[in-house]
Structures are given as C-alpha cells and as structure tokens.
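In the current project phase, our protein records have gained a structure token line. A sample record follows, to show the layout:
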Amino acid sequence: MDVNVRSRRFLLGGLSAVALAPHVVDARPRRHPKAAPAGEGAAAMAAPAGSPAATPIGPVDTIARWACIVDFNTGATLLEKAADERMPPSSLTKMMTAYIVFGMLKAGRLSLEQSLPVSEKAWRMQGSKMFVPLGQSIAVSELIEGMLIQSGNDACIVLAEGIAGSEEQFVALMNDEAPKIGLTGSHFENCTGWPADNHYMTARDVANLAVHIIRDYPQYYHFFSATDYTFNKIHQGNRNVLVDKGLADGLKTGHTDAGGFGLCASSDRGGNRIVMAINGTASSNDRAHEGERLLAWAFANFENATLFKAGAVVDHAPVWMGTQARVPLVATRDITLTLPHGWQNRSHIGVDFQSPVIAPVRAGQVLGQLVLSNPGMQDIRLDLVAGTSVEKLGIVGRSLTRLGFPQAKPS
C-alpha cells in the first residue's frame, strides 16, 4: 500500500501568527542616521522620469538604462533593469583589474611595497590618469590608489604589465577568472575599460563582482573608500560622490560615450549591506542623484529577517515503520531572507514534505522544504533535514503496525 502523500503544513500566516512564534528570532529594519526613515525614501527624493525596473514590491522608475541592486548578505535581487544585457562598462572594468591584483597580493605573488616600472605605453595612456612619470617605478599600493580613486588608466597598465608581462596577458587572466566567480555575461579586451569591440559586462555581473571583492578580499576593500589622493603633486578627488558624502564605502564610477555614466556603490548600515550597479545615465549629476535615490530606496523598503537559527526544529514529520513515531525537521543553517518591510502582515511560512516519511531515516537526510509565500513574490524554498536518525522496525513491529497497532515509541 502506498501511504506516502504530499503534506503542506502552515506554520505562520500574518502578523498575529508571527507574534506567537518564538522561532522568528530577528527582523531588523535597515536604518542609518543619513538614510531616510523607512517608507520615506521615495518621498525624500522624487523619482525621475524613466522606464521602470522590476522589484519584488512592484515597478520602480529609473533613468538608468541598466541597473541591478542586491543584498550582500542574502544575495537577494532587490531591483533589476536590463540586468543581463551586455553594456559598455567603462571604468567599472577596473573593479575586475583590482580583483586580479588583490588575488596576487593574497597569494603572495605581489606585495603592496613592491615597485613596478612605468613603460612608455602606460605613460602615453589617455583618459583619466594618475600621471605616472616615464621610466620611474611606483609602489603597488600607490598604483592601486591611483587606479581606484583617480581612475588612472596609466596605473592599470603599470599593474597589468608588472604582473603579467603585458596588458594582453593580464586581460587573459581577467577573462579566465571572470566565469569562475559567476560573471557569465562579461568579456574583457583591456584592463582599463577603454572603449573596444567585444568589451562588455552586465549590470548583474558588476554587482556580483562587487560582492566578490568585498567578500573575498576584505583586507583590500578600504582602497575604494578614500575620498581623494595626491600623487606627483597632483591632487584628485574620488569620482564616486556617494563615497565623498559618506553614503557608501566603495566602489567605482565609469563613463564612456557609448555607455553613459555608471556607478557601482556599496553601503553597510547597521550590519546590512546593499550593493548597487547602475549605468547609462546622461550625466555625472544624474548618476550621483540616481545612485543616492536608489540606495535610499533599497534601505527604506527591505529588511533582513532571520526566521530560524541553524539547528532549530522547524516541524516534525510522522514516520512509517520506524522506531520513533516522528522525526524533527531541522534547518541546516540560519535561514535569513531579505523581505519587504511589513512582510509579517502578508507572508505565510509553511513546511512541504512527503508524509509519512518511510523508515529508515538518516540524520541530515533532506525530508522537506520550508516555503515562504509572499504576495507578488515567487515562493522561496529552503531544504529541511532530519534532525535525528530513525531505524526501521523489526519484523514483529512492522507486522503489528500493519495490523493497526500503534507504532513503537522511543524508550
């Protein structure tokens, strides 16, 4: 006889249910003294005319041609507009150059104190510059600052040639590493972002790259946050206005005629970090205002909620032919989700599993899923596992169970 059927149990539904549930341990709104209070972000800075971006809470207009905003801690996408469309990344490319440089530093193949020589190619490089002197050698730390703060194309060339022997060989490293960290919509022809055929990224890749920089090389992330830098008696400010205003702690800006004005920024407020990538705005002022507006919108409209801690028993499933009548369904890790403010009033949390579970059961075996349903959002599903092992009954116990006697209980 087939006794196994799909079972869905609802644990929580609406605010009143949440209030009765002690295992909902944390739901922290994102607040910061410099940020607009929750719900006031849109009112504080009027949305510009533009086509809408998709978000979990409905369309949001933006003048950016390409955009992607993600939560650093959970990976949730909060806003996207043409996020997987190829775009000219301009100097946002330098984030990938920095990622390769940071990897060399961490591996011990390069040091911050090491000096690299300035070639004629680097010295002649046009566009934004840190003004490296021909024939001299520059410390790696200074080159990184010149590349990230002053957006120096010349600094990129010095680093590329010093690490790989030539810019072409360095670019090969970039293209080899990109898919390894999930940049599936990117291809590089140079290390600076200088306009070139077949040189492109996507807004999602830019945001993903920023997440990897912060997560993989936190010891070097501070290079993105300096507000200015002086080299060779030439003082230049960070082009990232959000960094200058203290609203973000990195990362990079960019501009080309084909791609418009772009920005990748990240901000941490109360332990919650947002990463934003926008591109295709019409001016540096538009880039700054739209970046500030969208960052405030993200913090004002979403929060991280820890629903269950690792090891918490979420529910119990009945066991057929087992030495125990039930088995606990356990979370394997902290279950933290990024959800719209007020999610408690609209969400339902349930458990989906085959019922009953057929013995034997092994601890750690996936038995079901936690299902979070929220209007306007796709269901979120997370695996739940057996918290203990349950052995199969012996032949006598199985016979008694088939005759309708209660299953054995744990001794």
User: Anything to note?
Assistant: The CA atoms of residues 42 and 396 lie 68 Å apart. The chain has eleven helices and 21 strands. Confidence is low (pLDDT under 50) at residues 1-5, 14-45.
